[in-house]
């Protein structure tokens, strides 16, 4: 359950905690519930989802027309926002960073807003990926637990 909460709160690594729950359950049941292949695949997916969580917002900004400045601004704003105003700072920071980056690239306000919106969409997609992955792990956990 903490894994699902961690998907929404950026200070808690949701997919990692979800994967850790599989390891703990396997250890508690003498490594019988899950095969080593399953655990290796889930570890790889945990790493992939974690990386995508940082890449997808910048990709969303790029898809909505952001320049290199907008993408860098989205990434910087997201990182600053996580520490300054958790949990909403990540969303607001990516939006504001992409917007500011586009203004620095001398784009007009409408194009800058469009890039900021793309960063917002990217964050929502990344959060959806984390929720889907952690929900899948929760399913396997509960299936083996009961």
Describe this structure in words.
The protein is mainly α and 146 residues long. The chain has one domain (2-145). 82% of the residues lie in helices and 0% in strands. The protein has 6 helices and no strands. The protein has helices spanning 2-8, 14-28, 36-63, 68-84, 89-104, 109-145. α4 (68-84) packs antiparallel against α5. The longest helix is centred in the C-terminal third of the chain and has 37 residues, at 109-145. The chain is elongated and about 60 Å long.
Produce a short descriptive summary.
This protein has 146 residues and is mainly alpha-helical. It is 82% helix and 0% strand. The chain contains six helices and no strands.
Task: Output the helix-strand order.
Answer: HHHHHH
Number of domains: 1
Ranges with pLDDT <50 over ≥5 residues?
A: none
| Helix and strand composition category | mainly alpha
Distance between the termini: 16 Å
Tag the structure with descriptive keywords:
146 residues; mainly alpha; 6 helices
Secondary structure layout:
Elements: H1 2-8, H2 14-28, H3 36-63, H4 68-84, H5 89-104, H6 109-145
Helix pairs in contact: 1-2, 1-6, 2-3, 2-6, 3-4, 3-6, 4-5, 5-6
